[in-house]
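Data availability (excerpt). The following record was deposited with the supplementary files.
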Amino acid sequence: MLDEMELNNSLTPDEAQRLAGKLAFLSTTFFGGLGRAALQPFYARAHGLGEKNNNKLTFALQAAIHLIRQIIRTGKPRILPSPSASPAPGAVIYSDAYFTLGEKMLMAGQAPDLWHPGKRKPQDNGWGFVVRTGKSTYFAHGRIPD
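Predicted structure:
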């Protein structure tokens, strides 16, 4: 995605929103938050900051792409201790969900105060999880129709 974006010198607000979510997940799960500041230009574009109808990459976006590529190439994944390594049985669970409201993608619990569910149009909803227990890891993700 980063290569295509740079090759086309273009990033729409919708693309920026989707990419920011993926990069935030990558930053948190693999690198323990490393590179999170580089996501700000993507969020700015996603929220329509800057020139209207101009999808060209800004200097900030170009720098962020370069930094994120560098982190992906050289960063070491975060190590999570296995629950089986501890004396007590347990599991490590990560989960996330989202829904769209108009053109905005929101996390669970971010619904605006004046939102009326009965008056909304069909929405895109999604979820995902990773569970690690003992020596096994399970994961799934999907979309939920309105």
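Summary of structural features: The longest helix spans residues 13-31.
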